[in-house]
Amino acid sequence: MPPKVKAREPLVGILMGSDSDLPTMQEAAEALDAFGVPYEMHVASAHRTPEWVQRYARDAERRGLRVLVAGAGGAAHLAGVLAAHVTLPVIGIPMENGSLNGLDALLSTVQMPGGIPVATVAIGRAGARNAGLLAVQILSLSSPGLQRKLRAHRARMAADVLARDRRLQAARSR
Ligand code: RP5
Fold first, then answer.
1. Backbone CA torsion sign across 41, 47, 48, 51
2. pLDDT tens, 39-48?
3. For residue 105, which atom of ligand 1 is closest to its CA?
4. Residue 8: what pLDDT?
5. pLDDT given for residue 102 in this prediction
6. pTM attached to this predicted model
7. Atom number of ligand 1 nearest to Cα 72
């Protein structure tokens, strides 16, 4: 059984390798905000603050966190190192930066050894947004309220696409 937590205590831990990742990671935070999911955010580095990351991961479950979201660039090991220390789901976001535009971070995040999964999303802002949504979906497994909000969100997206198509058809028939 997951630990019982007070409603406003963070359920999601968002970590990023550097504050230079914040504009991208903000997308994940905004997705959680949109669903009213409480979270915390920290700058922490698998390489520059390895002990801090290990301690954070080891304490995460006891503190009531249910999902970890980690973004890093370059040799992006933050999500993988977290995953090594927890059985909570870990979602990894490769940052779009450096000389390889995020391809290095994508491979570093996604190519985990068998047995220690990291759910890796797309490079950059769209990936960060999806990471937030995926965290909501995971939490919705034990929250009918979040399930309802997710269904409404999907319905709004579908309505938006249909409206765009109507505008396209109208423009083409002029
Ligand atoms: C990674 O190196 C960070 O996650 C960031 O994406 C990148 C650059 O970090 P800074 O030099 O801006 O601190 O570890």
1. positive
2. 999 999 999 9
3. 6
4. 83
5. 98
6. 0.94
7. 4
* Nearest Cα residue to 24 out of 92, 89, 117, 82: 92
CATH architecture assignment, domain 12-142: 3-Layer(aba) Sandwich (3.40)
Residue 138 has which token pair?
Answer: 């995971």
pLDDT tens for each residue of 13-35: 999 999 999 999 999 999 999 99
Say if residue 3's pLDDT is above 80.
Answer: no
Q: Which of 14, 19, 21, 26 gets mutated to test ligand 1 (max ligand atoms within 8 A of its CB)?
A: 21
Q: How far is the CA of 40 from the centre of ligand 1 (A)?
A: 20
With DSSP H G I counted as helix, E B as strand and the rest as coil, what are the percentages for the chain, rounded to 5? 50, 15, 35
Q: Is 40 exposed, middle or buried (0-12, 13-18, 19+ CB in 10 A)?
A: middle
Instruction: Report yes or no: 25 and 41 within 8 Å, Cβ to Cβ.
Output: yes
> Is 95 close to ligand 1, i.e. is its CB under 6 Å away?
yes
**Alpha-carbon radius of gyration of the chain:** 18
- Whether residue 14 contacts residue 65, with contact meaning beta carbons closer than 8 Å, is answered with no
| Mean of per-residue pLDDT scores for the chain | 96
Domain boundaries, the chain: 12-142, 145-174
Which DSSP category does 143 fall into? Answer: -
Q: For residues 90 and 118, is the Cβ–Cβ distance under 8 A?
A: yes
